[in-house]
Amino acid sequence: MTRAISLHDLSKTYPKQPAPAVDRFSLEIPPGEFLVLLGPSGCGKSTVLRMIAGLEDISSGELLLDGEYANNLAPGDRRMAMVFQNFALYPSMTSRQNIGFPLRFEMPGEDQNPRVEETARILGIEEILDRYPGQLSGGERQRVAMGRAISRHPSVFLMDEPLSNLDAKLRSHLRAEIARLTRGMGVTTVYVTHDQAEAMSLGDRVAVMRGGVLQQVGSPRDTYHLPVNVFVAAFIGTPRINLLQATVLAPLGGGMWIDFGRQRLGLPEPLSLDHQMLRIQQGRDIIVGLRSEAVRIAAPSSAHAGEVVLSGIVEHVEYQGHECLVHLNTGAKPAVVPELEAPRLPAQRTRSAARRAAAGPGGLGKLARKAAGRFPGLLQEPDGAGAVKVLDPPPADRAEQPTGDLVVRTGPDIRVRPGDRVPLLVDLAHLYVFDNTGRRICPAPAEQPRLE
Ligand SMILES: Nc1ncnc2c1ncn2[C@@H]1O[C@H](COP(=O)(O)OP(=O)(O)OP(=O)(O)O)[C@@H](O)[C@H]1O
Ligand SMILES: [Mg+2]
Predict the structure, then answer these.
(1) Residue nearest to atom 4 of ligand 1 (CA)
(2) Prior bond to 395 cis, omega within 30?
(3) Dihedral through CA 146, CA 147, CA 153, CA 159, nearest 10?
(4) Looking at residue 2, what is its pLDDT?
(5) CB under 8 Å to 29, separation ≥6 — which residues?
(6) What is the DSSP annotation of 162-212?
(7) Measured in angstroms, how far is the CA atom of residue 232 from the centroid of ligand 1?
(8) 149 CA → ligand 2 middle, Å
(9) 278-324 residue pLDDT tens
(10) Considering every ligand atom, which ligand is closest to the CA of 44?
C-alpha cells in the first residue's frame, strides 16, 4: 500500500526565529511518486520532511495523507520509514537484529526471520546478516539502515540525504539501487538532497526550494530546460549555466540587440514573439542565461539559422576525456546568485577574491556594491563566512582584458589554446532572459505552472 501526500500551505516557524524555516509550501505527491526535495543548505528541506514524518509540529497549513487530515497523526501511525544521513545502527546488534528490530513492534510474537531475509535478498546483503555494524563498510551499513526501513513494508519512504556520507562511487551505485528498489516497491518516496545531479537522476519530479519557499516543481527535464527563475537555472546543471549581466537595445529605427557591455548580440529579424516582449525591458538590467551547450566554438561562416555570433578569448581548457569545457572571456559581467557558491572566477583572480571574502562585508569591491544596487534581489553582501559572492575587478596588469566569464562545452578534440580569440555561435533557442527580479521572461513562461 502506498499513499498520496498533500501539503497545503505548510509553514514552520521555529521559536525565536524571525523568518519561517518553511513558508507556505504546497505540493501534491501522488501515490508511488519519487519526489526529490532539492535546495541549498538551510533552505528547509529537512524541515518539510520532518513535518511529513510527524517529527516536527506544523506551525500552519495542512498535511493530508490519502486525502485525510494528518497534522496531528502520531508518527507511528503514519506507516512511514525514514532513512537519515547519519544512519544509526545499534552497534551491539547484528545486521539481522538491526533490520528485525522495528518488526518486533509491527509483528509481535511472529518469526521475523523470513521478512529480514527477504529484505536482505532485495538489498543483496545476505552475506553480512550476522555481522555487527563495526564489521561493515559505510556502504554496507547504509544498506542495513535501508533494510531496516524496507523491512517494515512502509507506505512512504522519507530519505534525508541518505548517501551524503559515502564516497562518490558508492554513492552513485547506491543511488541506482535506491531507484530500483523504490520503483520496484512502488512506494511513495520523498528524498532530500542538495546535490542536483542526484536529484536529476532519481526524481520523477524535483521540487526546488530556496529560503523556505518552493521555487519550482517539475520533471528533471523541465527544471533544466524551463527554469522559472535565475536561482533554479543556476542551481540545476553542471557546469553551471553562464549568467551574464546585459541590457536590451531596441532603437526606434528597428532591430534589437542584447548588449553585454563590450559586445552586442543582434537578434534576428523578424523578431520572434519572445524577443518582441524584450522591448519592455529596454533601459532595465537583465540577466542572460546560456548553458554551456547553447554556445558553439566555430568559424562564423558555419553559422546556422537561429545562431548569432559573439567572440571570446580562451582562458583555460578543461579536458574531460569525452568532452572539453572551454573557459572564455567575452567582456560581459557575470551575474551572481548569492546563495550558491562562488561564481566562476578565472584562476588569476581567485586569490584577491578570497582575500575580499575573508575581509567580510566591509571588503566588498566597488563593482560588487554597484552590482548589488542594480540587482537588489540577486546580489547581496557576502555573509563573511568565506563564500565568494563578489564580482572582483581584474588586477591592474589585466585591467585591459575583458572581465566576462563563459564556459562552453565542446568535443574532446577542440584545438584552441589560452589567448586564442574565437567566434562563438549562440543558439537562440536556448538563450534565457531573466528580468531584474530574477524571473524568467524568455522563453515566455506562459504555459508554465507558476509558483510564487
Ligand atoms: N530546531 C530548530 N530550531 C531553530 N531553527 C531550526 C531548527 N531546525 C532547523 N532550523 C533552521 O531552519 C532552517 C531550515 O533548516 P533545515 O534543516 O530544514 O534545512 P535543510 O535544507 O535541511 O539544510 P541542510 O541541507 O543543511 O540539511 C535553517 O535556517 C535552520 O537553521
Ligand atoms: Mg537537512
Answers:
(1) 14
(2) no
(3) -10
(4) 79
(5) 4, 5, 6, 7, 35, 188, 190
(6) TTTTS-HHHHHHHHHHHHHHHHHHT-EEEEEES-HHHHHHH-SEEEEEETT
(7) 20
(8) 19
(9) 999 998 999 999 999 999 998 656 666 666 688 899 999 999 999 99
(10) 1
Atom 30 (ligand 1) nearest CA: 42
**pLDDT averaged per 10 residues, the chain (length 452):** 93 94 98 96 96 96 97 93 84 94 82 89 90 91 88 90 82 84 90 94 96 97 96 94 95 90 90 89 94 86 70 92 94 84 44 41 37 33 27 37 71 92 91 94 70 43
For all residues of the chain together, what is the average pLDDT?
Answer: 83
Burial class (CB in 10 A: 0-12, 13-18, 19+), 269: exposed
Listed residues: CB within 5 A of ion ligand 2: 46
Q: How far is the CA of 23 from the centre of ligand 1 (A)?
A: 13
* Ligand 2 geometric centre to CA of 299 (Å): 48
Among 46, 52, 193, 383, the mutation site with the greatest number of ligand 1 atoms within 8 A of its Cβ is 46
* Alpha-carbon Rg for the chain in angstroms: 25
Is 72's C-beta closer than 6 angstroms to any atom of ligand 1?
no
Give the pairing of strands 34-38 and 205-210.
parallel
Is the Cβ–Cβ distance between 286 and 256 less than 8 Å? no
Q: How far apart are CA 260 and CA 308, in angstroms?
A: 14
Atom 12 of ligand 1: nearest residue by CA position: 21
Q: Which ligand is nearest to the CA of 339?
A: 1
Question: Distance, CA 41 to ligand 2 centroid (Å)?
Answer: 7
- Count of CB atoms within 10 A of residue 261's CB? 16
Which of 37, 38, 47, 215 to mutate for ligand 1's pocket (most ligand atoms within 8 Å of CB)? 47
| Distance from C-alpha of 206 to C-alpha of 439, rounded to nearest angstrom | 19
- Assess whether the previous peptide bond of 114 is cis (omega < 30° from 0): no
What are the structural domains of the chain? 5-234 (3.40.50.300), 241-442 (no CATH)
194 lines ligand 1 (CB under 6 A): yes
pLDDT digit string, tens, across residues 135-167: 998 888 888 998 888 888 889 999 999 888 778
C-alpha distances in angstroms, 441 versus 219, 240, 265, 291, 447? 20, 19, 18, 16, 12
Closest ligand 1 atom to 85 CA:
27
Asked if residues 187 and 81 have their Cβ atoms less than 8 Å apart, the reply is no
